Amino acid sequence: MEAEQPFNPYASPTAEEAPSEVEQLKDKRLIILPPVCELPRRCVFCNQPATKSHRLRYRWWLYFWGVFSISIKWYACELHDVQVRRQQRSWWNWLVWFAGFIVVANGIDYLPAGVSGFLGAYGFGVAIALVLVAHYWSRRREHEVLTLPTVDRAEPDAVAFKHAGRPFLDSLADGAEGYLVVDKIP
Questions:
Q1: What is the average pLDDT value for the chain, to the nearest integer?
Q2: Which of 12, 16, 17, 47 has its CA 20 to 30 A from that of 155?
């Protein structure tokens, strides 16, 4: 039998860590939609009234019997819209930095040969290091990042929409608005 440990005033706290807001919103269920539709004007993540719209478009979705297009309009509240737009811009910012370092590494003709060779040799390495750091930080913050809604599977008459938040999916689960919420595609 284990004896009870005496109280240690210097011990670290042992409280369980509460899940973050993003982890509470995540849900693996799917919404079955027509290929061209507009979701209710509520935030896809938290189900609050939404003002900012986003459109998910695939103009040339290949299917066994041919090609068709998908256009789903979804909404986000102010708070989640800021997060979504920040995430959409982050990779473009790193791409611009990477391209800038390549230009610096290869296009410096007006500097002396020694300086130009130094920047040419190390500029590309610095660009690769920056991309690796961006990848590391994005993975490190993955639990804080919203997963953007996307299409899981599509057919000409039905599209499986994934990465909506639990509150939004719960509001659609009764089927009153004409959307079908499923655990997995039949």
A1: 76
A2: 47
Q: Is residue 94, in this structure, part of any structural domain at all?
A: yes
Q: What percent of the chain has pLDDT over 70?
A: 59
Measured at the CA of 173, the angle between CA 172 and CA 174, to 5 degrees, comes to 95
- For residue 22, what are its two tokens? 């993003």
Name the domain count of the chain. Answer: 1
Q: What is the pLDDT of residues 72-119, one digit of tens each?
A: 999 999 988 888 887 776 666 666 666 666 666 665 555 555 555 555
Does the pTM of the predicted model rise above 0.85? no
Residue closest to 80 by CA, chosen among 156, 164, 6:
164
Can you read off the two tokens belonging to residue 105? 């590494």
Q: Domain containing 103: what range?
A: 27-177
